[in-house]
Amino acid sequence: MAILRHHRRRLSQRLVGVLLGLGATVESASWASSRAGRSVGRERNTTTDVLRDAMECERQVADRCNGINVFEEPSGACPPWDAAVDLMPPPAAALFAGVTATDLGCISRSLGFGRLLWCLARGPAVRTALELFTGTGGGSTLLLAHALAAGAGGRPQHLLSVERDVRNVAHAIEVLQVSGVKLGGFVHLGGATGLEPSELPELVARPGPWLLHGDLLQYKGLLELLCQAVGGLDLVMLDPPIGVDLERVWPGLDRACKPRFVAVHNANLRGHAGWLRHQLLADPGGEWQEAASGSHPSPWEAVDREIGFLGDDGELTAGRRTWSLLARRDPL
């Protein structure tokens, strides 16, 4: 297994996937919130409790950031961030010269969606998360990695984040290092299944964010191997670049990993992952329910219109990008 050695490097300024828009505001929720995001006393692990705590945590962070819900965090809107203190999520980060995190469409604490992701991953219900895809790593990757590292204890915590562009992976590793998040490891995917079963013990033994470089669609059985190693998934974060077909991936992922929560960004745009929201919610009495949803202003409205909107009422969301947090129903 190729574990990346910690060293500085000159990062390419050529940007790929600039329009990986991310973020949101918490506009609606299936559960009202009434208390902060960590369990006290008895374990609060029903879906209702978990979402209630995460929503309350998001509101507390939003209050500290003046309730903003935009990609670019205005100067002074949130308190200065200290890597040694885990009471606030980190701001989005971009280390490419002359480029901001907003230019890269990074999810941030300045977005309600980013805050909710951080709060959910920081609570006791999430120990393992899969992110498709990393992008440049300064948005949801950073938020999830920081939240899991600062979480509520228990079993080892893993973030598995997949990315095709090695320059984005290098940037993501740099972002995590600068932000004080210890890297679990880095893998170049290869072979028939992406990695060999003999390599899995090292991944299990080294919790933290693992960045997996390669094309997920080339490796049949990769997610099954990973989920067997880490014991399934609590959270899946989906924000694929336009045109990346995850419809072939989801059935195997769901069967082998049984995620409890699925977060979908750009749910209203064609070519992204909004189809999964529609699929999971097609049966009102089915296994899945929408725990929370929202939107945020899109800086790329003209691009969004060119891409096209998903669903008959998609045009109603013009000028905004929507998100959805889906939860598997608790067994009776």
From TrEMBL:
<dbReference type="InterPro" id="IPR029063">
    <property type="entry name" value="SAM-dependent_MTases_sf"/>
</dbReference>
<feature type="signal peptide">
    <location>
        <begin position="1"/>
        <end position="28"/>
    </location>
</feature>
<protein>
    <submittedName>
        <fullName>Uncharacterized protein</fullName>
    </submittedName>
</protein>
<keyword id="KW-0732">Signal</keyword>
